[in-house]
Amino acid sequence: MAYRDEAAALPGATLYFDQGDPARGMPLDAVLADPGEARHLYVCGPRGLIAGVLERAEALGWPAERLHYESFKGAVALANDRPIRLVLRGSGRTLDVKADQSILDALIAAGLDPLYDCRRGECGMCMTPVLEGLPDHRDHALSAAERADGKVICTCVSRALTPELVLDL
After folding, report:
1. For residue 166, which of 43, 70, 87, 104 is within the disulfide window of CB 3.0 to 4.6 Å?
2. What is the Cα 112 distance to its own chain's centre?
3. What is the pTM of this model?
């Protein structure tokens, strides 16, 4: 962990490591049992670890705005991800986004040339207007108000909570 000393120095921070041996296990339910009023959870590591921790935290009642992660390779696929039908209103095209595929990757695979940069949901470059459907925001670029409004989505990491998402593309 590159910033281990800095993270450990934060007031109230507790770090958990398995040293690469999953058998050592982390007491995940004990760590996540009480989201409290002001606790934040930060997780980094392999995609499977991140997804597992986030899914468990959600199941234990952690609010999404207090869950933070960093994925060096882009979107974190979650176990409950389903395929999405993507309707592109401006171009009249319809695409199927696989459960393990980002919206951005589906757009590129279809021969489109969307704007993007970081592929981690940090910069907002891929922010696209949503015309219909409910986004599943997994980015770090949008504000809480933009997320609640549901009128934009960062296509590089976010998905849809509805089977179909209509974008202004």
Report:
1. 87
2. 23
3. 0.61
Dihedral in degrees, nearest 10, Cα atoms 79, 81, 82, 87: -170
SS3 112: coil
The DSSP code for 98 is P
Phi and psi dihedrals of 73, rounded to 5?
-115, 20
Rounded to whole angstroms, the Cα distance separating 71 from 108 reads 21
Q: Where are the domains of the chain?
A: 4-70, 84-167
Between CA 130 and CA 107 the distance in angstroms is: 15
- 52-100 pLDDT, tens digit per residue, is 888 889 889 998 888 887 766 555 667 778 999 999 999 999 999 999 8
38: tokens are 């002001």
Residue 3, C-beta contacts closer than 8 angstroms, at least 6 positions apart: none
